[in-house]
Amino acid sequence: MVEIKTPEQIAKMREAGLVVAAVHAATREAAVPGATTRDLDEVARKVLAEHDAKSNFLGYGGFPATICTSVNEVVVHGIPDEKTVLKDGDIISIDAGAIIDGWHGDAAYTAFVGTGHAPELVELSRVTEESMWAGLAAMKLGNRLVDISRAIESYIRRQPRPATGKYGIIEDYGGHGIGTEMHMDPHLLNYVARKRGKGPKLIPGFCLAIEPMVSLGTAQTDVLEDNWTVITTDGTWSSHWEHSVALTEEGPLVLTAVDGGKAKLAEYGVTTAPDPLA
Predict the structure, then answer these.
(1) Strand 207-210 relative to strand 221-223: parallel, antiparallel, unpaired?
(2) CB atoms within 10 A of CB 34
(3) Within 13 Å and on the Cβ side, how many CA atoms surround 15?
(4) Residue 100: what are its φ and ψ, rounded to 5°?
(5) I need a surface site. Which of 16, 26, 87, 143 has the fewest CB within 10 A?
(6) Whole-number Å distance between alpha carbons of 83 and 207
(7) pLDDT at 266
(8) Could you tell me whether strands 251-254 and 74-76 are parallel, antiparallel, or unpaired per DSSP bridges?
(9) Rounded to an integer, what distance in angstroms lies between the CA atom of residue 173 and that of residue 179?
(10) Residues with Cβ < 8 Å from 59, sequence gap 6 or more?
(11) Measuring CA to CA, which residue among 216, 270, 214, 269 is closest to residue 245?
(12) Pick from 229, 16, 19, 237: nearest CA to 113
């Protein structure tokens, strides 16, 4: 069953989403050469405390940290620690969440550490982020879940192939419903699986976390011995972008974007719903 939210509940999710945006801003500033991933986790903890919010990652299935810090070939679920020191030229995907009054927000971004990044890494992050926005733009009344998957995959497939080979759309992980829990039905693939059908119709109150993950090579992953850290099987670097979004009678509202997604979705000809907290 898909959990459908009322306007009042979406407003609470918007509160949580803005806390996630604040965590993103603070960790992005702190992701510099010499910082450890544990340092970034501490930054996130302080932001959550300042907003009287809880972490929806800490303790989830035994996860031991406030955020996920996934460096270079790590796709998702990297565990912050004192041993992982960020270096000039690294990329890091930071996945963060927050709970306000029982309602969840969840979003991720890829950051460049220092300078001197290869053009294909810059393009990898851009392609991944833009595919997310293509998926968000497909969050329309009357569309079905598969339309979001198709928008994400189609955007990626239209891009010129990287010099290193190809873009691998990670197959084992995807987006999800969100609301009173961080991970809820339905599961959202970042590609179209012919045998999965069209999925549910998108109606007002439908809330999703849309999160493409793309590598510079394979679509396949392995999980390390810690049972969390997910890496590409061929060692190619990857990017991860995510926003939580609610669909209303007046259109989509990107809950974890400071402007509600207004500027980016306008590029797709989509008008966002009014911000309930404005």
Answers:
(1) unpaired
(2) 11
(3) 14
(4) -125, 120
(5) 87
(6) 37
(7) 98
(8) unpaired
(9) 19
(10) none
(11) 270
(12) 237
